[in-house]
Write a structure and sequence with these properties.
mainly alpha; two-stranded antiparallel sheet; 2% strand
Amino acid sequence: MNQIQLPQAPRLLSPLGWTVFLALLLCVGLLVPALNLWLPVSHPLHMSDFAVSLVGKIMCYAICALAMDLIWGYTGILSLGHGLFFALGGYAMGMYLMRQIGTDGNYKSELPDFMVFLDWKTLPWHWYFSDSFIATLLLVVLAPGLLALVFGYFAFRSRIKGVYFSIITQAMTFAFMLLFFRNETGFGGNNGFTDFKRILGAPIATPNMRMLLFVLTGACLLGCYLAARWLVQSKYGRVLQAIRDAESRVMFSGYSPLPYKLSIWVISAVMCGIAGALYVPQVGIINPSEMSPANSIEIAVWAAVGGRASLIGPIVGAFMVNGAKSWLTVVAPEYWLYVLGALFIAVTLYMPQGVVGLLGNLKKRISSSKGDSV
């Protein structure tokens, strides 16, 4: 009697993939700290503080792009509001950093300077646990997660999809941006939070702390990549891709799309919140402009340029676009938005699979041409 051979579960990474992963981990955890902290500034291999800060910031953006790929590339839901979740995580961390200033502010008060300036006498209720690092870590996850859960439940239950869903998410982030601009909400108004001095009681502006934040960000990005890869290779991930390709057939097969769409939506929002929390202490400021619809659109651009539904593509796209932005905004800042728009149009029309997809197609053509010649 013949036994049925069940298909084996795909490997999380190939041997080459694990080699590259470990090499990147060593680069983030050992090589970059050595080049920045141990080599003198005059050494040709020295990595400057500016370069460390720039790469650390782009790695935070890459986490957002990876989160966008899960919801857009693998589930077919285009969000134009993920900048809101990024900013909420940043504000949660910013509140803790503002409390860490203590009496070292300009007004020598236990209250943050902007509250003293506005003649506030006590902390608002939503600041009560902001002096606890553990509570802050919980808030970094819960603030974007709960908002995504509530919004997603009503949106997905109402079967809002396509361009309508994208417009609603854009309206949501714009509404929160206007709310956070108001001084009476207790989030610093248009200035936001800045002038951070300590984290966990240690000075935040030292080279060692800057490098620690860099290493944590790199490790978090690699960890998010592994977690995302595990998700999309599982049965859960296959259902997500089925929802993307034919949601009605998934329903006829006995699956309810609601819990799948809602859960990946919340996971994606939480990833953006974590990225925002890592971003703020490295950049040194958070304000409502991080919630602007343009920032959310840029996250979608990173995923599209790199290549949707590839996981590695959005990370590549985040580094490519932000690297170009960092260079072009110095050389010709007035042309950056035109370049960004042209890049998005070109990728949509001529490279629908992004840079990673283009490279994959070229590799296939080279292999096929070699096979034909043999």
